[in-house]
Amino acid sequence: MEREMKSKEVSDVTVFKYCLGGLTDRAVLLKEIATSATEQQLFRFADQVSLYSGCSHHRRQIMIAKPLIEHGTKLWNSIAQNNHWGTAIFEIQQHFMNLASCSTSSLVQQDFEILRRIAGCRDYIAQENFEKMWCWLYPIACTLSKKRINSMWNSTSPKWIDGFITKEEAELSLQGPRGLQEPGTFVLRFPTSRSWPHPDSGSLVVTYVGKDYTLHHRLLSIDYIYGNEETQMNGISLQDMLLAEPELSRLGRITRTQTLGS
């Protein structure tokens, strides 16, 4: 594969193999390709995959493959010798905050617990555990580094994105003393079941109370956030874009628990 990448473009066979493979197969194949491919080759590969699969969301996952691997390798080498979770998590957090350009918001204990459960480790984190966690965390760091979402993440009043929350925590937060809160109340979260190279990894989910007084979960893809050129030119914030949606009217408050969902 390495010799192929140095001499020519990714073959059609490889493109089809990627499109037809499961997430594990795609991750293995993409790691192999990204190690030796140039950015131009990855860009053309992303175009081909998007064309053949009919899903443009694959593009972002392919384009972040090389920095994901490079930053992940560097971070793992840094914590491998002292891989006790209680120590490693603070270095992981610092690396994450630097990548995400976090100026005010840091992770809290509940965030650490979610990261540990995603990693599947206990007191010590092995390389396999780290890679599971990193494939979920790095796309989020990329998302948070974008100007529109970064301002929301760093906002404290109101707190638009309250760390990493589960589906169950989001739903619990929308409960009132007599049932669900008013229709249009919503919270923002990163789905814990979407890891690179899943096309939705790093995307936000809006969990909200519908007009029918039932809970709904709506994915906000990166295309939604950055695909509207008119709103960007007019300087409209993502907060205003969300509140302009007919189903959404006010931001809810997060209730933290110890459960993990999708």
Report on this structure.
- The chain is α+β, with helices and mostly antiparallel strands and 262 residues long.
- The protein contains 14 helices and 6 strands.
- It has helices spanning 2-7, 12-20, 23-36, 39-53, 58-63, 65-79, 85-100, 109-119, 127-144, 147-154, 167-173, 222-226, 229-233, 238-243; strands at residues 175-176, 179-180, 185-189, 204-209, 215-220, 250-251.
- The chain has a 4-stranded mixed sheet with strand order 5-4-3-6. A two-stranded antiparallel sheet has the order 1-2.
- Strand 4 and strand 5 (215-220) form a beta hairpin.
- Helix 7 (85-100) runs parallel beside helix 9 (127-144).
- The chain is globular.
- It starts with a helix and ends in an 11-residue tail after the last strand.
- The model is unreliable at 1-7 (pLDDT under 50).
